[in-house]
Amino acid sequence: MAAADELTFHEFQEATDLLAETPDVATTRSDQLTPQGHVAVAVDSGGGFGAEEGEEDSDKAALLQDQKQQPGFWTFSYYQSFFDVDTSQVLDRIKGSLLPRPGHNFVRHRLRNRPDLYGPFWICATLAFVLAITGNLTLVLAQRRDPSIHYSPQFHKVTVASITIYCYAGLVPLALWGFLQWRKGIRERMGPYTFLETVCVYGYSLFVFIPTVVLWLVPVLWLQWFFGMLAFALSAAGLVFTLWPVVREDTRPAAAALLSTVVLLHALLALGCKLYFFQPLPLEHVTPPPQVTLPPHHTLLPQPTPAS
Asked: What is the pairing mode between strands 41-42 and 26-27?
C-alpha cells in the first residue's frame, strides 16, 4: 500500500496558487522534477512580455516608416538618393557600358534596381567640355601647320555641346519611357524600365565617346571615322542589348521600329558631333597652292635685209 500511495498524484498548493496568479507563465514538463521531488515552475519576470512588446514596437516603427511622407520633387532630399553611389559602382557601370555582351542586361546586372544620376550627369558634362575643347584644339593645330589660318576662340561651342548632350540624354529617354509605358497598356506582358533606369542607361552609354573625341585630334581622316564608327557600334549595341528583353514581348514590327529609331538617333548624335565640332576648314582659310608664273615669251622676228 505504501508503494501504491507513492504513485498517486498529489496537488501542490503553492504551485496551484502561483499558476492562478500568473496564468501565462512557462511551466516545465511534469516528468522534470526537482531533486526534492517537486514540480519546477519557471516564472518569467516579464521577459516574455518584453519580447512581445519589442516585436510590436518594431512592427509599429516599420509601419510608421512606410507611411512616412516622401519628400517633394522640389526639395534637395528628393534628389539626394539619386546621387548615393560610390566610386566602385560607377566604375563597374562604366565598364559594363564599354563591354556590351549579348544576353547581359545592363539594368539587371549593373544597376541592380539602384539607378543613379551621378554617373550620367558627370559623363554628359565631361563629354560636352571635351567636345568644345577638342573642337578648338583642332583649329589651333591646323594654324600651327599653316600660319595663314586665322584662329579665334569659339566659346559658343561649350554652350552648343552642353545643350545638345543634355537634351539628348534627357529628352530621348523620356520619349522612350513614355512609348514603352503606352505599349505596356497594349501588351500586358511588357515590363518597361523606370524613367530613372532609362536615363541611367543612356547616360552611361555616352561614356565611350569621351576617349573617342580625344582621338579625333589625330589629323588622319580615315582614322577619325574608324574611331567614330567603333564608338557608335559599342554604344548602340549596349542600348539594343538592354532594351531587347523589354521590347521582345511586343509585336515584331513595333520592336523593330523602336530599336531602329534608337540606333538612328544615336547615329545622328555621333555624326552631328563629328561634322560640327571637327568640320573641315573653310576654303577661305586654306592657303591656295602657289602658282608658277612663266616669263613672257617673246618671238624674235627676222631683221629685214637692207636693199643694195
From this structure: antiparallel
Sign of CA dihedral 31, 32, 37, 39: negative
Q: Which element (helix H / strand E) includes 41?
A: strand 41-42
Encode pLDDT of 215-233 as tens digits. 999 888 899 999 999 999 9
Q: What's the whole-model pTM score?
A: 0.67
Helix, strand, coil proportions of the chain in percent (round to 5)?
A: 65, 0, 35
Question: From CA 14, how far away is CA 38, in angstroms rounded?
Answer: 11
User: Which letter does DSSP use for residue 109 in this model?
Assistant: I
Angle 156-186/118-145 helices, nearest 10 degrees?
140
- Measured distance between the N- and C-terminal CA atoms of the chain, rounded to whole angstroms: 194
C-alpha cell at 250: 511586343
Per-residue b/e over 79-103, b at no fewer than 16 CB within 10 Å?
eeebeebeeebbeebbebbbebeee
Query: What sign has the CA pseudo-torsion 194, 199, 204, 208?
Result: positive
Are residues 127 and 209 in contact, defined by beta-carbon separation less than 8 angstroms? yes
Amino acid at 58: S
CA distances from 299 to 177, 210, 293, 304 (A): 83, 66, 18, 15
Q: Helix (H, G, I), strand (E, B), or coil: what is residue 27?
A: strand
Q: Which of 6, 209, 4, 3 is nearest to 94 (CA)?
A: 209
In this predicted model, what pLDDT tens digit does every residue of 170-179 receive, in sequence order?
Answer: 999 999 999 9
Compute the distance between CA of residue 143 and CA of residue 86 in angstroms, rounded to an integer: 43
From CA 92, how far away is CA 112, in angstroms rounded?
Answer: 12
- Compute the distance between CA of residue 26 and CA of residue 41 in angstroms, rounded to an integer: 7
Within 8 A by CB and 6+ apart from 232, the residues are 266, 267, 270
